[in-house]
Amino acid sequence: MSGREIRHRQSPLNRKKNWQTGLLGEDTLEQLFNTILYLIGLHFTLHAYDKHKNLCTGAYSQFKIKVDDKGWKYLEYTEAQSKNFQGGLKNLHQKPKVVQAYENVDDPSHCIVHLF
Fold first, then answer.
1. How far does the chain reach from its first CA to its final CA, in angstroms?
2. DSSP 86
3. In terms of DSSP H, where are the helices of 1-116?
4. For residue 33, how many other CB atoms are within 10 A of its CB?
């Protein structure tokens, strides 16, 4: 890791402080919005504004809540496009990136599956 990556990463103490100060949470619409935005970036590495802006919702949503064969709920994200996967004829045989974030049963208030 470069020093630049380390400088921008939040320590667990700062993450905890964001919940304690009320920046993140689920009590108000603004808190919920900030929390979902933060957790999506954390779990699915969507950090740039355009990545969040281009997310599909509704019938064509890139997020689905699923249950695995052991009964654990998880949120699944399927990438629509990226610099390595454009989705055209050239990428016909490539599969899009699919990432799962499992529920946090120990602390549902910090759980992307619960909040989604």
1. 31
2. -
3. 3-8, 12-20, 29-44, 49-53, 112-115
4. 10
Instruction: Note every long-range contact of 12-18, with CB atoms under 8 Å and residues 24 or more positions apart, other chains counting.
Output: none
**Gap between the Cα atoms of 65 and 49, Å rounded:** 24
Beta carbons within 10 angstroms of residue 101's beta carbon: 19
Q: Percent helix, strand, coil in the chain (nearest 5)?
A: 40, 15, 45
Q: Among 36-40, 51-55, 65-69, 94-98, whose mean pLDDT is lowest?
A: 51-55
Q: Using only C-alpha atoms, what is the Rg of the chain?
A: 16
Sheet order of strands, 73-78 included: 63-67, 73-78, 98-102
For residue 72, what pLDDT is reported? 92
- Note whether 22 and 30 are within 8 A (CB): no
Measured in whole angstroms, how far is the alpha carbon of residue 86 from the centre of its chain?
Answer: 20
Predicted TM-score (pTM) of this structure: 0.66
Q: How far is CA 87 from CA 13, 14, 62, in A?
A: 39, 38, 14
Mean pLDDT of 73-101: 71
